[in-house]
Amino acid sequence: MKIRHRFPEGHGPRVAALGGGHGLAASLRALRRVTDNLTAIVGVSDDGGSSGRLRKEFGVLPPGDLRMALAALCGDDTWGRTWSRVIQHRFGGSGELRGHCLGNMLIATLWEETADVVAGLDWVAALLGAQGRVLPVSVVPLEIEADVSGADPSEPGVVSHIRGQVAVATTPGRVLDVRVVPSDPPGCAEALAAVREADFIVLGPGSWYTSVIAPLLVPDLRKAVEDSDAKRILVLNLSESDSETHGFTASEYVRVLAGKFPELRLDAVVADSRVRMDADGLRDECQKLGATLVMRPVASAERPAEGKHDPDLLAAAFAEITGRGRIAPWR
Cα dihedral sign for 241, 247, 248, 249? Predict the structure, then answer.
């Protein structure tokens, strides 16, 4: 029997946040302070680590990015902090469980018990007391393919075809184009509905090709984003640490996204105020998309070298854009 958890009606603007990995988790930690009417729409192309092993063995969606989104939506009370740590727990040792995350196995278990991807995620969210909903971009696992120049350092001018999210995310070459396999996957119906009903849609930050661009390669989801009356917000990365975007300036992130999706329009682009050296180019790229550039201090002062967003500061930027006013610090 399929069981579907019913979520209570939330307060605040309806927000759909797309992406995956640590970048989406950063946005969710900030957004949950602005609204509790929040849906995370998560990519399903991961093929590495614990997720890759479960995907290969059971044919399920890779649960890792879904788990990270659920952890980010856990409350700041004792229950929420505890469960956030528990589902992120990764087993050590030297046996078959080594490297697996408990949360990944919990999600896979609920999928088997309910025989329903969305119902399983809803039940995990209910157990955690998650302040929002987590959905996949598609109910079928996806693979990332990319055309990469210089993937082999000994042949810098040769274009190679690379397959797999981990391979694309770690390539030493320059990514020229990216796509998903299958090329026309079905969008998750509940995710499409969340986008259509949203007041705000948030993209980024994250690995640009494999986390930010990849979800929009699902045709149904991209069309829903493009056709939506919601205000679309793009959050830029703080650093160029990812191999796939090595050497990118702030304006190049926007230019690559616009080049891949020429029908996509943005309303606001959030960038850290430290990118002033590229501010003019970034502002020009934003204007081409009809977007207002919102430059605010959003980087974590505690770990500046790691390129992490501060949840308080990013939440303040979201509150300003969404008209929610000033908010008290979340500690």
Answer: positive
Q: Residue 60: name the closest of 42, 47, 41 by CA.
A: 47
Task: Specify the DSSP class assigned to residue 208.
Answer: I
CA–CA gap between residue 104 and residue 126 (Å, rounded): 16
* CB distance 170 to 210 below 8 Å: no
pLDDT tens-digit readout, 283-311: 999 999 989 999 999 998 876 556 789 99
Question: Per DSSP, what are the bridge partners of residue 25?
Answer: none
pTM of the model: 0.91
Q: 141: Cβ–Cβ under 8 A, 6 or more apart, which residues? A: 44, 45, 55, 59, 60, 61, 62
In the structure encoding, which two tokens stand for residue 5, read together?
A: 């958890």
Instruction: Round to whole Å and give the CA distance between 65 and 61.
Output: 10
d(CA 62, CA 244): 21
Task: Give the C-alpha separation, 53 to 7, whole Å.
Answer: 31
Q: Is the distance from CB of 178 to CB of 217 less than 8 angstroms?
A: yes
Q: Which residue has the tokens 């505890």?
A: 82
Q: How many CB atoms lie within 10 A of CB 53?
A: 16
